[in-house]
Write a structure and sequence with these properties.
6 helices, alpha/beta, single chain, globular, 38% helix, five-stranded parallel beta sheet, Rossmann fold
Length: 167
């Protein structure tokens, strides 16, 4: 009997992560049940004005997965599907919260398939308790003094409080 050489399955999980939420973390953990390694890709989106710098966002994510060597973080500009193909990722993970997300994500997945057939799109839903949250909603609530504790990791909560001078 010959040994079959096992190759590590790799996926990327792109987003702006401004900031990372417990929903994002849930998606990453779900992805780790399907893939050996996930690279969290902080995408630079010129159409968005982020609250946190790229380095702050990278640090926030790293702090969530400091003990898990299966999670890496990278900063990328340009076409994500080209990046995925270049690093030999099998898939791009995308989170779906609601039907409203599906239309855009479906179009994106079809374009990515047209551009690079070797990279699959994998859609994951967060756990029900995170289904309604997004980075935008978290920032808006925190900006107006709302308590977002428990919706983001503790260190992210502290960074939001500091950013908005909330007590």
């Amino acid at each position: 009997m010959t040994k079959v050489q096992q190759t590590q399955s790799l996926a990327i999980y792109p987003g702006t992560f401004d900031p990372i939420t417990n929903g994002h973390i849930d998606i990453i953990n779900r992805g780790l049940t399907l893939f050996d390694k996930i690279i969290v890709v902080i995408a630079q989106n010129p159409g968005k004005e982020p609250l946190f710098s790229l380095e702050d966002r990278k640090e926030m994510i790293q702090s969530c997965f400091v003990d898990d060597k299966r999670v890496e973080i990278d900063l990328v500009s340009g076409l994500l599907v080209e990046y995925a193909a270049r690093i030999h990722a099998r898939a791009i993970i995308r989170g779906l919260r609601a039907v409203s997300d599906f239309d855009y994500e479906f179009q994106l997945a079809l374009m990515n398939r047209k551009l690079e057939r070797s990279v699959e799109s994998v859609f994951l839903m967060p756990g029900f308790r995170w289904i309604y949250i997004s980075s935008s909603i978290i920032k808006d609530a925190a900006r107006h003094g709302g308590d977002v504790q428990g919706l983001v990791p503790a260190h992210v909560f502290q960074m939001l409080r500091k950013k908005f001078n909330n007590r």
